[in-house]
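User: Predict the full complex structure for these chains.
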Amino acid sequence: MAKKLVLHPDRLFPADPAIRAIARRLYGAVQTLPIISPHGHTDPAWFADNEPFGNATELLLAPDHYLYRMLYSQGVPLASLGVASRKGPSDADPRDAWRLFARNFTLFRGTPSHLWLSHVFSLVFGLDTVLDEKSADHYFDSIGAALRTEPFRPRALFERFNIEVLATTQSPLDPLAQHRKIQASGWNGRVITTYRPDTVVDPEHEQFHDALRQFGELTGQDVHGWRGYLQAHRLRRATFAEAGATATDHGHPTARTADLSEAECERLFARVVAGPVSPEDAELFRAQVLFEMARMSLDDGLVMQIHPGACRNHNRWLFEQYGRDKGADVPRATEYVSALKPLLDRFGNDPRLSIILFTLDETSYSRELAPLAGHYPVLKLGPAWWFHDSPQGLLRFREQTTETAGFYNTVGFNDDTRAFLSIPARHDVARRVDCAFLARLVAEHRLDEDDARAVAEDLAYRLPKAAYRL
Amino acid sequence: MAKKLVLHPDRLFPADPAIRAIARRLYGAVQTLPIISPHGHTDPAWFADNEPFGNATELLLAPDHYLYRMLYSQGVPLASLGVASRKGPSDADPRDAWRLFARNFTLFRGTPSHLWLSHVFSLVFGLDTVLDEKSADHYFDSIGAALRTEPFRPRALFERFNIEVLATTQSPLDPLAQHRKIQASGWNGRVITTYRPDTVVDPEHEQFHDALRQFGELTGQDVHGWRGYLQAHRLRRATFAEAGATATDHGHPTARTADLSEAECERLFARVVAGPVSPEDAELFRAQVLFEMARMSLDDGLVMQIHPGACRNHNRWLFEQYGRDKGADVPRATEYVSALKPLLDRFGNDPRLSIILFTLDETSYSRELAPLAGHYPVLKLGPAWWFHDSPQGLLRFREQTTETAGFYNTVGFNDDTRAFLSIPARHDVARRVDCAFLARLVAEHRLDEDDARAVAEDLAYRLPKAAYRL
Amino acid sequence: MAKKLVLHPDRLFPADPAIRAIARRLYGAVQTLPIISPHGHTDPAWFADNEPFGNATELLLAPDHYLYRMLYSQGVPLASLGVASRKGPSDADPRDAWRLFARNFTLFRGTPSHLWLSHVFSLVFGLDTVLDEKSADHYFDSIGAALRTEPFRPRALFERFNIEVLATTQSPLDPLAQHRKIQASGWNGRVITTYRPDTVVDPEHEQFHDALRQFGELTGQDVHGWRGYLQAHRLRRATFAEAGATATDHGHPTARTADLSEAECERLFARVVAGPVSPEDAELFRAQVLFEMARMSLDDGLVMQIHPGACRNHNRWLFEQYGRDKGADVPRATEYVSALKPLLDRFGNDPRLSIILFTLDETSYSRELAPLAGHYPVLKLGPAWWFHDSPQGLLRFREQTTETAGFYNTVGFNDDTRAFLSIPARHDVARRVDCAFLARLVAEHRLDEDDARAVAEDLAYRLPKAAYRL
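Assistant: Here is the predicted structure of the three-chain assembly.
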């Protein structure tokens, strides 16, 4: 007999009855608040075109590196899961790929992917048995059938998910046609963009020189000179802001910033443009551009997000065969105190600037990030990120930052996902974990319940809206 | 209607009824033990002169960088809080500053400052409504009125707080007049000093050269030569010991120690004295002086405290405007295993020496500090410090050190505070958290309750007294 | 009256009744599963000769650096505990040493040694009072008497402990006579060896040159040339595999690997052989040998274990007086992401290879190790190791690795001990902690109980057997 899929209403709440009762009440106050999703990677074309999604494999498995990295770690070839390689799309049959996934779903026991998918299966698709080898076809068929119906089109799901605002992320080279199409469509879903200039900022990116050339064409600037390069950024940032963007996003290897003289910048940029670039110059250039991005934010008001610390595409063979972003990114120790000093020395006390810091190195939570954010007016802490967007990860974030930075130097939750269907699941997990954390404070008489409810509401709704100037 | 301020008797105890019952019993055994405060920064003049404190802002807000750093992080100017700048005292009206603080008190939700202040408001001043915008004036007036009465003079509070011994911290340049005045006064409160030579040890301190000159004048030694410099330390240490000091305190950027030859020391010191000093020489000099301090402790028996890892005065603008110690210190990754080796190679097994190590980098608890203290007879671990003197911080300290170093290589609690009124609150939080930790061990049958009670008493009273040779 | 020694059946289970009930049920499913001990340091001679053990001090105290390091940290001289020095055996009377230990047993409150010893005293020896000064002689006499009986001979204990396979660790220079004797004896206990080549791999080991010479004599290879050196490894690995080994073990200071050209290897090896070796060459040589060990594993199928991060013999005086492995090893920050890249670039996707990574630096759990093992098919995570083989240490391992790497990129438990009698105690603690962790997931509806039971069984039995190819 098939095993029931049960999404318990008390999931993620502590077992202790006193704490659980408080957590339930707090969660009751935030469960249905609209979703603010200020940082993510969904495809704006979904909302521009509003075409139906394909099948379970295309929608849920093949694009989700959380899923296929785990399967790959246990010897499952990526091609068999429908993941495209540099040679082109996978020729795996989507149903076969789904069966393979289903057969290995036990690997996800204890992981956030298991929680998110159970939420999607149960609440979005109404499935009521667990996913395993036997139910694989039933899942594939049911999901496929649902996706062909109107209520499962992107805009309908957006509305059903109660999303108040959804930010996507685009390169400066993106013409933002999808966002314009959404705006022109008359649909009132708010889908905004974010300025993420990595390809024109990172001289070690394999597309840097091509991207730079396009950057010049798009803006009409001489982007091979330092001033023209900066002006091109200013122009694209303005265009992004007009298209709704309220933030920029910077995914550098480190948090390093630099405050070089104009002459030094020009010489450095000349070396970067001439290529080949040394690792030291590449790092210094990224550092200086981060500084320039802060300076531009003083004028255009875009909130800066700094996401350092990932060693991207660590698996050489996989990168050569499958390309970027295939689940082979690995965090590294990340330093903030020296790295940010040049930027903070200049702009750290400027009320026009707002910087949201993320980390993949949890050791920096209590040691560096909470003390920095608990002092500098320009700094706020982004939520537990990526590998740490998980029940224990979210809890460690609160446990290690709250006592020094408080709740009000944090910015609520980011889902940071391209898995559109998982957005409500991810926000729900974050809300539950925050309520569980707060409930323990209440039960231990460290916070009264009225205050805890106010904090829960702030974390779920008010803080992200304010921090991202939405 | 004003909201009641309630200090729950079970605060900070785990919610589970079985653990809480044990925690209550353990706490009952330590709640009223005298306070041993072997490391702190109160002003000895308070106890020498026994003059009344001023008002709520002057006593509780303006000197407490835990409070104004959080307010500053949310955009509140320091001057508006009564904090003095380099130009002189703040001209903010104390009542206005207090109102501003009260209006923003919600920022402290979930922080130890909230717990400590609630304790002070409720138990020291008998206030029974929470602090908020509406109660701000009532607070200001009530606290001001209390401070003008005899029971709120410093000595009366010292006695009421059941402090058995309170250590302050002085520079070698301090004539110790206040401590002598206390001793001569006939009052039997025990207020001792601690030898903290940073200004004459750190060549990067802006007052180093002035301090060195005064050091020579005070001791009659040629402190611009290495031997005279060391002899000056010996003389001042002896004077401090005569005034009651049992310990020295060293707040270096790193834990580095060095064991140079006499000739190398002389050459290094000549460069340091000549100035300007290179960062490498400054670091090496501090390292060598730490080694010399250990050598002197073999003779005079002063316990060494090493507090590395803070990047001081990180905010450049704030430092320029407001000076040192304004809540802009940020911890950094701190290494102990190599750093301490020169010192330990010479003195690590000497029964005359006792060194208490602190850290702001919690990653070193389980990785370096507990293994070092769990082996070397000269090493003990100071408690969770500064940013980690908080319920979760204290708990992480116990969770990450006990299994390797045990309880008996730790030294109980330090309040490390200049906020005199918060001393009982801080010790109370530490005692509660230790009891909560121990209660969990008992409830999980990892320790029996008799043993847990003995440990609780040791941590609260016996260990600090023994470790500091009081 | 003597205090009862009670080993509570619910020890280490969370106090919350709902979680505890689940933990009990999960533990019931794994409590009596056979012990797989794939990594340890017991003496194969015990099982080859099956001679009775000596007395309590010789068996339990003098060889256990967990015990004497703690006593030493509180000023107890090693010689008084029966620990041999470089000059020869301790002349302490074993009974006196035991009394000294008993008198100080309170130092171990809250440590895993206390848990393990309580298990040994109660369940192995049937003692029913706690160890303290008064019971010291009773313990010494009872244990001594038991050890003289047949049921306490090594093979009888091995069977009573329900050990299915026990791996010991040998140098390549070991003739494996004991393992051959066990195999020839007709006894059906499975005691296998592990290839641990540190002495012929680490040019900084004081025995390196001697060991290298013997390595050549034993294998008939010219081990002072790079090719002969590699061939000697191949031959000894084959011999170890024939004697039952399924794994190699590498205890390097760091995790660094290198992929040098043949010519570079030859030049490097020539420098290493010529000596004295520079620290850089020593490190590079170890890195290259690790790479070669991986390459050999492709052919002979031995599983690699990499245990980096200990600064060995940190206490100089103790090393000079007492030699290696005397409880003075201290962990250091350990980096994996860059260190392993050369090896992973070549072999990271090869299905023939399996590498088990350990760490003493818990900061790498969530930041580096779980992301690496959650992606690379060749990588698995060894359990919480050494200082972290403790209830909180095991729990932190699960909390910080599971969400990214899942359970199935971990390999169950290793006892890693030379304290034979503690093996069941250590596995019991690990099983209880895993069940406690799983029970919490069940109680919080993050995993259903059937799945949790399957995971508990996998962690206790199936995963170590599979990971070590047993």
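Chain C touches chain A through 48 residues (CB under 8 Å).
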